[in-house]
């Protein structure tokens, strides 16, 4: 009889322990849901018209091959995080010329309680994700500058568009 | 044993949730580059003088004159499939001296997109096509870059020549979209 009672007590203890573990796990699951996932917000765009005023000289000269946006052409905010994160960048072309090479760099550290590093020298944006910069906690007003290379009169008259994708991931 | 199975199962579920909720968001912006059409042309060489001179031997026709020191330099950018044409004309009221014609032939350097010569043309008040098939090019800006221009002042009717007659004309080159 006593043995049976002990077994029943042990089962109760196990059940209670299991329940406690489940409660903790559910809380762990709910915390990120309640606080929300990390967010990246990108503002701005870059449009550049290239015409005869961009020739290197008089008639007979070619177009300047390189163009840069303003240093704060694009603004990025990283929110809803207290963790380390990294930002990847890629482009998806709508109508883009093969001679063009698009570069990007970070020109400010932004504001916030965390930190930020990397991405301060120009790197070419390709069709596959590449690490851009990384940081810790919330950062706002991160400035981005763009640079276009490969322009010449060999590029036909047209409007060329690509879209830059910034992906932030908690790490 | 039962607890460990539950724990492992739950851990797998958590990892699945974690990958869904923790953590990756994305935003975008466009980049637009507008390449405008470009058609600019300039003349290197400036003013020149051509004269009909007496023959070296009596009874021979007067001697023609020529100049090939001028160059046309141009930059062109067109939409895919379009070409440009270079025309020449002189101003209304201009004319060659009596008994003469002023002709020219323009020879592109052969660079890609710089077009092809239309051959010899007699300059008049009506636009004459001198180069066709110009697409994407920048001929260069050095002194002898671009398309060479050869002018020929040719006696067409020696009996109409007037001694001492001088004529000044202004030759205009125009780069236009091919129709």
Describe the model:
- The complex is a heterodimer of chains A (171) and B (179).
- Chain A starts with a helix and ends with a strand.
- Residues 30-34 of chain A have low confidence and may be disordered.
- Helices cover 20% and strands 43% of the residues of chain A.
- By secondary structure, chain A is of the alpha+beta class.
- In chain A, strands 1, 3, 4, 6, 8 and 10 form a 6-stranded antiparallel β-sheet that branches. A 4-stranded antiparallel β-sheet of chain A has the order 7-9-5-11, with no helix packed on it.
- In chain B, strands 2, 3, 5, 7, 9 and 10 form a 6-stranded antiparallel β-sheet that branches. Chain B has a 4-stranded antiparallel β-sheet with strand order 6-8-4-11, with no helix packed on it.
- Chain B has one helix at 2-21, and strands at 24-35, 38-44, 65-77, 84-90, 100-107, 114-117, 121-122, 128-134, 137-138, 147-155, 171-177.
- Chain B has 179 residues and is mostly beta strands.
- Chain B has a domain at 62-163.
- The model of chain B has no long low-confidence stretch (mean pLDDT 90).
- At the A-B interface, helix 1, strand 1, strand 2 and strand 11 of A face helix 1, strand 1, strand 2, strand 3 and strand 9 of B.
Enumerate how many helices of chain A there are, as a single number: 1
Sheet-strand content of chain A, in percent, reads: 35-45%
Rg from Cα of chain B: 33 Å
Overall pLDDT score of chain A: 89
Distance N terminus to C terminus of chain B? 86 Å
Q: Could you describe the largest sheet of chain B, including whether it forms a barrel?
A: 6 strands, antiparallel
Question: Helix share of residues of chain B?
Answer: 10-25%
Percent helix range of chain A:
10-25%
Shape, principal axes of CA atoms of chain A: elongated
How far from one another are the termini of chain A?
A: 55 Å
- Most extensive interface: A-B, 61 and 48 residues
Please give the domain count of chain A. Answer: 2
Note the main sheet of chain A: 6 strands, antiparallel
The arrangement of helices and strands of chain B along the chain is HEEEEEEEEEEE
Which class best fits the helix and strand makeup of chain B?
Answer: mainly beta
Q: What order do the SSEs of chain A take from the amino end to the carboxyl end, as H and E?
A: HEEEEEEEEEEE
- Uncertain runs of chain A with pLDDT below 50, 5 residues or more? 30-34
Radius of gyration of chain A: 26 Å
Low-pLDDT residue intervals, each spanning 5 or more residues of chain B = none
Q: Please give the count of helices of chain B.
A: 1
